[in-house]
Amino acid sequence: MKTITICSALLIALSLTGGATLSPPLLLAKTPAANTANRVYEKANPAVVTIRNNRGHGSGFIISADGFVITNAHVLKGQSAIVTVMMADGKTEMPADVVGFSKGGIDLALLKINRRQKFPTLNFGKSSAIRVGDPVYAIGTPLGEDNQNTFTAGMVSAIRGGGKVIQHSAPINRGNSGGPLVNDRGEIIAVNTANDLAKVIDGEGTPIGTNTGSVGIGYALSVDLVRKFLLDVKQGNISAVATI
């Protein structure tokens, strides 16, 4: 009896709507910001790599079709002369030689992937065009390798150190070090290097540690420092060990 009642109710409902079939829900159009983020990710992501070391991993990005990779010096500090680079597909792993480190305590280093093929690359943006409030995007492998090539968005929060350091709000964490900060054209404008750590306090207001997660304050070395470092590389003015 219950089944008959349900079927009758369905027939009545269909008759009231003229037997029309149900329409699928309307899909809302993407916002311009979402479209920009999609485009930036698709353009920049293939050139971002994960760099394994004997302490864990860091991030980096390819700047030349023959396989030169920029990363942070602290990602490679104390490592062997050869490290492993994992490509954005999460499957392809390749050895890479440590070419050298920036002098003067600058947290930059250069790798060369030890394989002959044409690699995807990131183009350089102009530091002179960076303004506070500009949208920015970070790509890297935070925390664990299961988070490989995580994409986050934020804005330029401040320009510090005479233009050498870009403070931004795109969430970054341990493991993002050496990965790119890119603009809305998918161009590299800085190298993610550190995030601020918020103090953890007890009920009485006494600091008892730090929160190791992102607090929306990230720091990245300007593309101008990268350009200078690459010029030093060409001139042989680099260090065999990290100077940070």
Instruction: Note the total helix count.
Output: 4
Number of strands: 14
Q: Helix amount, in percent?
A: 10-25%
| Radius of gyration over all CA atoms, rounded | 24 Å
Order of adjacent strands in the largest pleated sheet = 1-2-3-6-5-4
Uncertain runs with pLDDT below 50, 5 residues or more?
A: 10-14, 197-203, 205-211
What structural class do helix, strand and pairing data support?
alpha+beta
Shape: globular
Summarize the main sheet: 6 strands, antiparallel, barrel
Tell me what portion of residues adopts beta-strand conformation: 25-35%
Q: Span from first to last CA?
A: 81 Å
H/E element order: HHEEEHEEEEEEEEEEEH
Mean pLDDT equals 86
Describe the structure.
The radius of gyration is 24 Å and the shape is globular. A hairpin with a 6-residue loop joins β4 and β5. The chain contains 4 helices and 14 strands. The strands form 3 sheets. It has a 6-stranded antiparallel barrel with strand order 1-2-3-6-5-4. The protein has 244 residues and is of the alpha+beta class.
